Amino acid sequence: MGIEGIGARVARKEDKRFLTGLGRYVDDMVVPGMKHAIFVRSPHAHAAIRSVDTKAAKAMPGVIGVLTGAELKNDGIGNLICGWMIHSKDGTPMKMGAYSALATDRVRYVGEAVAVVVAETRGQARDAAEAVEIDYEEMPAVTDAVEALEKGAPQLHPEAENNLIYDWEIGDASAVDQALDGAAHVTRMKLVNNRLVPNAMEPRAALGHYDMAEDHFTLWTTSQNPHVARLVMSAFYNVAPENKLRVIAPDVGGGFGSKIYVYPEEIVCLWASKKTGVPVKWVADRTESFLTDAHGRDHHTEVSLGFDADNRMVALKVDTIANFGGYMSLFSSCVPTYLYATLLSGQYAIPAIHCNVRAVYTNTAPVDAYRGAGRPEATYLLERTVETAARELGVSPAELRRKNFIREFPYQTPVIMNYDAGDYEASLDAAMREADYAGFPARRDEAKKRGKLRGIGMSCYIEACGIAPSQAVGSLGAGVGLWESAEVRVNAAGTIEVLTGSHSHGQGHETTFAQVVASRFGVPLEQVSIVHGDTDKVQMGMGTYGSRSGAVGASAIVKALDKVEAKAKKIAAHLLEADESDIVIENGEAKVAGTDRTLPWFQVALAAYTAHNLPEGMEPGLKEGAFYDPTNFTFPAGCYIAEVEVDPETGHTDVVQFVASDDFGNIINPLIVEGQVHGGLAQGIGQALLEGCHYDPASGQLVTASYMDYTMPRAGDLPSFQVSTTNTPCPGNPLGVKGCGEAGAIGSPPAIINAITDAIGNNDLSMPATPQKVWAAMRRNQ
Amino acid sequence: MAEISMTVNGRKVTGTVEDRTLLVHFLRENQGLTGTHVGCDTSQCGACVVHLDGKAVKSCTMLAAQASGSQVLTIEGLAESGELHPVQAAFKEHHGLQCGFCTPGMIMAAVDMIRRHPQGLDEKTVRAELEGNICRCTGYHNIVKAVLAASEAMSGKAKAA
Questions:
Q1: Contacts from A759-762 at CB under 8 Å and sequence distance 24+?
Q2: Among A390, A335, A396, which Cα is nearest to A368's?
Q3: Which residues pair with A664 in a beta bridge?
């Protein structure tokens, strides 16, 4: 489709501002009269608040106001919500404890906001925050989800007996038990999916501005979905009605899920701005980010996978305990249920699946969707278990997978999902070729000569993205529809603006979306601008998460383009005195097919706006909007193969080769897709090798609360990746695209752990596989 | 309070700052040069890297007063007469950035790295040298590619000159 259209490897349009230091992030925003907020946070994991005394703090230099939860409540600001209702298997609704933006009577995790100080400078606010006197009565805390369910565990919320939020199930338990009873072999494992901190490089920030003259609020915030933020703050938190609240998410420095949610600080900055009469800016420092950004994963799971005598899978049984932290975050409830258990069939034909999930309160930061959200947890348990089964059965892990692949589509799994298209063998074969799978034994032997233990591990993942058909998710408890919107404005001189409800925080929409438009009309990329991230400019939209911007966001643009094209053709046919059905628009002009009669694109646009000579009855202008609601999820899938070398002296693991073969359907921009895969892989390999969020079990203190303690993947920890794609186009959307943002983080952790356990000959290894853990596992062999 | 003066991106600037003011805050808040970012509190992430008298430093790790009398180059001053510096151009060509937040520090660190390795760079060295710069988006793959490409382009340029 040309050098700039769909499929072209175009360098990004948005790069220049970032490369030259002219990106505009929330912390770069300055509003006249702006002052600075610092939050007073709980130093305790669990405590009753006896009193909050702000008198001394209010007298400190530069202080404009010190506000508490009691005042917030008095002003009618609502509690934070969870937007997805899950019912337990006994039919009762999930048990949600009250979650105030500023705690009033009790704190439930270290870092929970209790009060806010607004002062002339950040330094003054910080000094005054230390002078707020809070009388806490410490209570026993529990940070581990399994322990939180035990008898006698500290209780967090009166609403949730035994800290249990819900006890949910999916699938046919008796069919699964029966099949496992009759199975020729059952592989059983206990697995922990380690808690992670998302760590977008830009810390969260908010700038709230109440304009008294207009009785109007503006919030600049680090959000992946500014419209959802506006809706929630208006409908549930009573900050301001939607028409009096503008939410702007300007350049946002990474999200990975952590910037989906509406956080206490955003609500408080808006409310505090009205309360104090000044614009209020808050910027998290890194430790605040560690303490208060929604964390990810944290599952404890027991799994049983049964095979018949021919090594075909007969049943999968899964029992998971999911740690939700001290409060339910905005979409927390759907992550270990509909984004997790529904993917447990993986790439395999498994006739019977049952999954039970218990969601649990603990004295830790709230947990919600983080890159992959539920799907990495499903993939990890399934791919660790399949690899282990292959070892137990004495068969090749690749061939055991191949034997059990789903081969006919559409395929209805026993856990809701209906896979629309895929070719799992193609990605397996591609990855094995690229990795020179057959040559591994020679490489292992060569490594042995150097004193290194070399291992190989595989993972075949599937995921569901393009979230999601609104009616379907509504029937499953979602509080919102998950369509996307777009508006295509052709200006009078032919340049084009696209207003999208998707939000780019690194994904490159300004380029890929423009490519979709450029492809349609053959106009240069530079004449197409993408507008996003401002509720005053863009119609209601749902934002970017769940790898949905291509499959859902770009589909909305295509729908709007269809309408623009139809009208443009009518205008061109009228001006060229031809039949509408003979008009073709390409290469920047409208022409009558089979003739040399043409009209430049800009003249079509101009004619629409001069309106001097339009078809009878046609309205002037060339601007169309569309809302696109997907008909199904899309199902990217692929095969990852990791090769590692372990130093037997130190337990240190080197990832020496990493091959990713992904099926993302059609691709708009391969350069950008590869970048998404690279980033996902780094986060997945980080989870497998380096990253572990650790709370001290006795005190509930977050031990890993800085980059000195939490091991972020650095350049030296990672190899260059070998990535490639196969293609079965998605039949469910007009571009045939799937989603590529999360795959790397979903597929890579089990490949790494499978490779290390292969290298060391001990399967008992948990993430992150630090040198100490690997060394200890090797010693257990002896 | 401290009276300070320095040259920032070729322009002489002065200011009166609290003694505790960090160089990064002086640049961002007093000078409005918001391209230099703050990504952590422990001098780990490298989003704040600028050049001080020609060498890469983390501007969150020194006081503004310590930089008084020095030549400071920030990301805003790197491109000359509107043309991207070869390192900036390589980051664009090789898609070495996504959200852009770590990018200014990455680029300033890379420019210094290339200067210190006139004989050229290999992947292992680049990865080791990037130890002080964290990126969460790219997995470093394309950053490494971009730095290697820029190193090659710049040594070519140096030879030609």
A1: A759/A453, A759/A454, A759/A455, A759/A644, A759/A645, A759/A646, A759/A653, A760/A453, A760/A455, A760/A646
A2: A335
A3: none
Q: Would you say A141 and A364 are in contact if contact means Cβ atoms under 8 Å apart?
A: no
- DSSP states of A669-728: -HHHHHHHHHHHHHHHHHHHHT----B-TTT--BS--STTTS----GGG-PPPEEEEE--
- pLDDT of residue B160 exceeding 80: no
Count of pairs with CB atoms under 8 A, one residue in A, one in B? 183
- Out of B44, B127, B139, the one facing A679 most closely (by C-beta) is B139
Are A601 and A536 contacting, i.e. CB atoms less than 8 angstroms apart? no
Cβ-based neighbour number of residue A61 at 10 Å: 11
Domains of chain A, each with CATH number or no CATH: 31-139+202-253+259-292 (3.90.1170.50), 299-467+632-781 (3.30.365.10), 483-628 (3.30.365.10)
> Is B79 an 8 Å CB contact of chain A?
yes
Q: How large is the average pLDDT for residues B78-102?
A: 97
pTM: 0.97
> What domains sit in chain B, N to C, each tagged with a CATH number?
2-77 (3.10.20.30), 86-160 (1.10.150.120)
Q: B41 and A672: CB-CB below 8 Å?
A: no
- For A11, name the nearest residue in chain B, comparing CA atoms only: B93
Contacting residues of B for A249, CB less than 8 Å apart: none
Q: Which residue has the tokens 């104090």?
A: A276
pLDDT band with cut points at 50, 70 and 90 for residue A780 = confident
Q: Which residues pair with A51 in a beta bridge?
A: A135
How many other CB atoms are found less than 10 A from the CB of residue A377? 29
Give the C-alpha separation, A435 to A387, whole Å. 17
The mean per-residue pLDDT over the stretch A5-11 comes to 96
Q: Tokens in use for A116?
A: 């806010």
Distance (Å, rounded) from C-alpha A676 to C-alpha A506?
9
Tokens in use for A297?
A: 């994963």
What mean pLDDT comes out for the span A722-742? 97
Looking at residue A341, what is its pLDDT? 98
Side-chain half-sphere CA neighbours of A388 within 13 A: 24
Q: What is the spatial order of strands in the sheet that A47-53 belongs to?
A: A106-107, A47-53, A133-138
ipTM above 0.95, yes or no: yes
Percent of chain A with pLDDT over 70: 100
What residues does A530 pair with on adjacent strands?
A: A498
Say yes or no: B149 contacts chain A, CB-CB below 8 A.
no
**β-pairing verdict for B2-8 and A653-663:** unpaired
Helices (H), A207-276: 226-235, 264-276
Say if residue A582's pLDDT is above 90. Answer: yes
A 248-307 near B (Cβ less than 8 A): 251-254, 256, 285-287
Count Cβ neighbours within 10 Å for each residue of A191-200 and write b for 16 or more, e otherwise: bebbbbbbbb
Sign of CA dihedral A709, A715, A716, A717: positive
Q: Tokens representing A210?
A: 């109440």
Residue in A closest to B49 by C-alpha: A21
Strand A113-119 vs strand A63-68: parallel, antiparallel, or unpaired?
A: antiparallel
Q: What is the C-alpha separation between A778 and A770, in angstroms, rounded?
A: 12
* pLDDT average, residue stretch A376-397: 98
Q: Is the pLDDT of residue B157 over 70?
A: no
Q: What is the 3-state secondary structure of A434-493?
A: HCCHHHHHHHHHHHHHCCCEEEEEEEEEECCECCCCHHHHHHCCECCCCCEEEEEEECCC
**Residue-level pLDDT at B82:** 87
Nearest alpha-carbon partner for A748 in A461, A343, A440: A461
Contact assignment for B38 to A27 by CB distance below 8 Å:
yes
Amino acid at residue number A753: I
Q: Considering only CA atoms, which of A136, A112, A115, A111 is closest in space to residue A125?
A: A115
